[in-house]
Amino acid sequence: MSLLPSVxxxxxxxxxxxxxxxxxxxxxxxxxxxxxxxxxxxxWLRTGDQAELxxxxxxxxxxxxxxxVTSTGEKISPADLELSLLADPLIEQIMVLGDHRPYVSAxxxxxxxxxxMFARENGWDADNPETLRQPVVVQAVLKRLQxxxxxxxxxxxxxxxxxxxxxxxxxNQLLTPxxxxxxxPILARYADEIESIYGNRRVG
Length: 204
Description:
- The chain has two domains: 2-64, Luciferase, domain 3 (Roll); 67-198, ANL, C-terminal domain (GMP Synthetase, Chain A, domain 3, 2-Layer Sandwich), CATH 3.30.300.30.
- A hairpin with a 2-residue loop joins strand 1 (2-4) and strand 2 (7-11).
- The chain is 27% helix and 26% strand.
- The chain is α+β, with helices and mostly antiparallel strands.
- The chain has six helices and ten strands; from the N terminus they run βββαββββαββααβαα.
- The chain has helices spanning 32-38, 78-85, 112-122, 135-148, 183-189, 191-198, and strands spanning 2-4, 7-11, 16-21, 45-54, 57-63, 68-69, 75-76, 91-97, 105-110, 160-164.
C-alpha cells in the first residue's frame, strides 16, 4: 500500500509498520549486522512501531519493544490501555506492566486533590501514606480501573495495583523530556513493591 509518493507501507508480524521505497535508507554504513536486523528478508525496513491501517491512514499503537508479553504468551500494547485508564480523574499518571508475569498490573500516581476527596468520601485518612497500601483502598481504585478497561480482553485488564502520590517527572528521571514514562527506571524504582504484588511469580 502506498500512502506517500515512492513509499510503500505494510503491516508485518506483531502489527509492525514496515516501509520500503526510493527515499527509504538502504542500510547502515559499514554496519552489516545492524542493517540485516533493520530489514526483513524481503527488503522492508522495520520501523519498530506497532500500527494498523485504517481507511488509508496509519494509526500508531506503540513501540514494539514496549509490548508486554505475559507468562501465558498474551501480547498487550500498553499505550492504549494506559490511555483508557487515564480517563479516571483519580489517576494523574499510570504505567501498566506484566512482562513475563501471569497477569497485568499497574502503578498509578494519584491526583492529590481528587484522591483527598475520594478518601474523605470513604472515611479514609488521605494524609497517611499507609492508606495507599490498605487492601480496601487498593481494591476500590482497582475496581474503577477494571471498569475502564472492560472493553479490553480479560487478560489485558489489571488485576493488581500499586498506588503512589509521588509524581513522575523529568527531574526524578521517570519521564523523558517529551513527557513519556520511562518504563525501566519506574520498574526499578518500585521493584520491591512489584515483587510483593506478584508474590515473586515471574517466568523467564
